[in-house]
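chain below, 506 aa
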Amino acid sequence: MLLSALRAGLAVAIAAGLIGLHVAEASAQTRRALVIGADDYRNVAKLQKAVGDARAMKAALEKVGFSVDILVNPDRAAFNSGISEFTRKLGPGDIALIHYSGHGVALDGENYLLPVDAPRPDRVDKEGLKLESFALMPLIERVRATGSNVQIAIVDACRDNPYAQSGTRSVGRRGGLVEPSRRPVKGQGGFFILFSAGFGQTAADRLDDNDREPTSVYTRTLLRKIAVEGKPITDLAREVREDVEELAATVNHEQRPAYYDELSGPLFYFAPPRSGGAVALAPVQPQVQPPQSATPRPAQQPAAAVPVLTPQQVASLPAGPSFDCRADTKPVEQAICGDAALSARDRILSQVYYRLADRLPQTERVALRDQQRAWIGQRNGCGNAVPCIAQAYDQRIAQLQAMSGGAQQQIATLTPPPPQRTVSPQVTPSFACTGRLTQVEQAICNDPALAQRDRDLDALYKAARARPGVASGQRGWIRLRNACADTACIAQAYDRRIGELRAALR
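prediction:
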């Protein structure tokens, strides 16, 4: 599981900024949802998970305060009737959500949702199909016309295009939906659309024929995020995008969900912060107080930055970590849930991780994801030991910040560092320390321990580079290494990559 995100500052200090104003309480703003799931198509390919998506989403939304109507396998008449009944219930200021799971196609720059009686591919052209389906943006505008304040659409409708086959008449041959081209009238509220795949991509209904989960790849990932308190919808969308891409990659499927944000005004949360109201963080200088027993690192090995949170800072953060503590959790996660400072670290790390991942091209994202998995395994080895967990978070936050270009403070670690390698001062790296060198290469040339790591890695890479994925992974790793801002980060990058190459040679 990848960690979830928090709108917080970087690790050395919690940055200034607004964590958020949540949308008004349910007593003042009614939350209503229409959930639609279509599996049992009569004339095009059937699906397996869409109805399961709808039922699971209904239960999840009700837990966070939505009143939910559900349509299961609606034909065109039932679809239209359900929309009319839903909009009839909406009033000014309401929060309105539509979740649709089923087939969808893109025609002439618009996305169309298909009822179960959508016509056969060989009996319709695109104009006919438009009349027999429901365009997404006019549907949102129909909801908006009720005076509702916020409109949320979740569209898990990018499965394989049932009309993309020979013999169809001018109906979209490609899979995937398109980015909305219309813009709403500016003002309070607005709309937000979550798509289960990137524009032009198709979404996996299931991982494979042995997939027993009742929900699609996208919806099952989304459901794990909705109940987390204090997670703005923009952070949720970013996290779901990264996690779905990782899950789809396990079956060699490319799926990176998109989202479309036209909200204005206060942040929207599915589960608002427990404290409610406005929560602002003023810029503060962290109070770094290493224990008396802490041992400083040698001068050439500056320690990672450690964010020591004051009680006031911890109290200002939304309660709990970035994951749902009500779910089944491991001992390490139970410890995090029970400790406010660990929960704050978890939210900070998640924010830094997902924002960094969002900026990287695919190869580097995969390399970063592999690093994060390895780190989670190390963290989990702490069990419920709070000091061990805290140190794991502090070191990983510092490493991710260094990759992001964040400033580092040279301070002592919370516990004594591991023994350093004994290396001859004359050791040189695998490359020549002459000519124009990057800042990272200069650091390696000036540090015998880093130089030895570089030589070790070079030997392993030469032995493993013929293995699948090693060469491309190496290019991504080099970019991540070069993003480091200090020797501690560089050393950690080498140690992880050395471990990966050794595993590839087994």
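The chain is about 40% helix and 10% strand. The radius of gyration is 25 Å.
thats it, cya
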